[in-house]
Amino acid sequence: MKLLKEKMLKEGIVLSDSVLKVDSFLNHQMDPQLINEIGREFANRFESESITKVLTIESSGIGPGILAAMYLQVPLVFARKRKSLTLTDNLLTSSVYSFTKQENYEISVSNRFLSSQDKVLIIDDFLANGQAALGLIDLIQKAGSDLAGVGIVIEKGFQDGGKVLRERGIRVESLAIIHSLKEGNIQFAEQAME
Ligand code: G4P
Ligand code: NA
Ligand code: NA
């Protein structure tokens, strides 16, 4: 997606060979026009899939997720990372390992909002090692829902997540795929180039 890649080149800050900071438009301050186009693009790519729910994980997936859900005209459900005061029973939970933090955390959704009638599109901001996506897929399986695919804003192609998911036969649509962040430069992968 050209607009996204231009924004990444203009405002992204390469923190290391493996981490890109995008807090001026996606992870802290958010650009509504750009995220609107991101949501529209996900909806276009998955429009023939009869999706009934979009599923993401708090917090950075919620922006792209709500816009994708709006264009698909279905609800967005976001998995929670912390226990909620009011969301207490009927929880489906899964354990996710964070490579960055080197610890496990629990994610959960209420079984009231995911069922065997649902066909679910997962949306997230980043795909790195894929642990968050695998946790969401586990929640979908526990709910008995079908998985339509995974939509990712920025995939780090030099990490394993994309491979792990695609090898399972899962459709992964990434709007930008980073081939390398070496020497402070963002190099995009061929398959993501327009
Ligand atoms: P994994 O699921 O692929 O294993 O991811 P990992 O634990 O390595 O990532 C932890 C967090 O860091 C996730 O956000 C993920 O989206 C984010 N992340 C991973 N790589 C990058 C990167 O290069 N740049 C940026 N900006 N973020 C990255 P989170 O902790 O769940 O936070 P939230 O922002 O969704 O609240
Ligand atoms: Na995220
Ligand atoms: Na994040």
Automatic annotation (TrEMBL):
Protein's UniProt keywords contain Hydrolase: no
GO BP annotations, alphabetical order: purine ribonucleoside salvage; xanthine metabolic process; XMP salvage
EC annotation from Swiss-Prot or TrEMBL: 2.4.2.22
Domain of life: Bacteria
Keywords, ordered alphabetically: Cytoplasm, Glycosyltransferase, Purine salvage, Transferase
InterPro entries per record: PRTase-like, PRTase_dom, Pur/Pyrimidine_PRTase, Xanthine_PRibTrfase
Entry's Gene Ontology molecular function annotations: xanthine phosphoribosyltransferase activity
Entry protein name: Xanthine phosphoribosyltransferase
Taxonomic source organism: Peribacillus deserti
Phylogenetic placement of the source organism: Bacteria, Bacillati, Bacillota, Bacilli, Bacillales
Gene: xpt
